[in-house]
Write a structure and sequence with these properties.
Elements: H1 5-16, H2 22-29, H3 33-45, E1 65-73, H4 78-88, E2 94-99, E3 106-112, H5 115-124, E4 132-139
Antiparallel strand pairs: 1-3, 1-4, 2-3
Helix pairs in contact: 1-2, 2-3
Organism: Albidovulum denitrificans
Keywords: DNA-binding, Transcription, Transcription regulation
Domain HTH asnC-type: 3-64
């Protein structure tokens, strides 16, 4: 299904303010509330909207340190990749894991309290991930831009 300009306006509004009421959203995109509700339901059922979440402030929750970890595996066999990916999903400190093309096989985004906490995460979790041959960690000094909004 193709999405039209109204669908794009709905998606853009919901990305900025996910708690907006259906009535406010309908007014913003110039639809009746019932038509707005039907469109949002369709966008959800067709996979354009994958869910609604609250975005938490990691700093306020005592996890201000972001570390990007490049992982190179010892091989590329499907079994090794699958084992690595399964293990990564069990580590709550890993916010993102991306299979990469380039110098590393995977790029992880990890949050921690501080450098000591990252050392604990490294020892207990990262160093025990299956098939890891090399690991390079880079600490973010400051976040210049962070968004979850996808251009629509």
């Amino acid at each position: 299904m193709d999405i039209d300009a109204i669908d794009r306006r709905l998606l853009a509004a919901l990305q900025k303010e996910g708690r907006i009421t259906n009535a406010e959203l309908a007014e913003r995109v110039n639809l009746s509330p019932s038509a707005c509700h039907r469109r949002v339901q369709r966008l959800e059922s067709e996979g354009y909207i994958s869910g609604f979440v609250a975005l938490l402030n990691a700093r306020r929750l005592g996890r201000p340190t972001t570390v990007f970890v490049e992982i190179t595996l010892s091989g590329q066999a499907d079994e090794l990749l699958e084992a690595f990916e399964r293990a990564v999903t069990t580590v709550p400190d890993i916010l993102e894991c991306h299979l990469m093309a380039g110098s590393a096989d995977y790029l992880l985004k990890v949050i921690a309290e501080d450098t000591e906490d990252f050392a604990r995460i490294h020892r207990r979790h990262l160093a025990r991930l299956p098939g890891v041959a090399q690991m390079h960690s880079s600490f973010a000094l400051r976040t210049v831009r962070q968004t979850t909004a996808i251009p629509v």
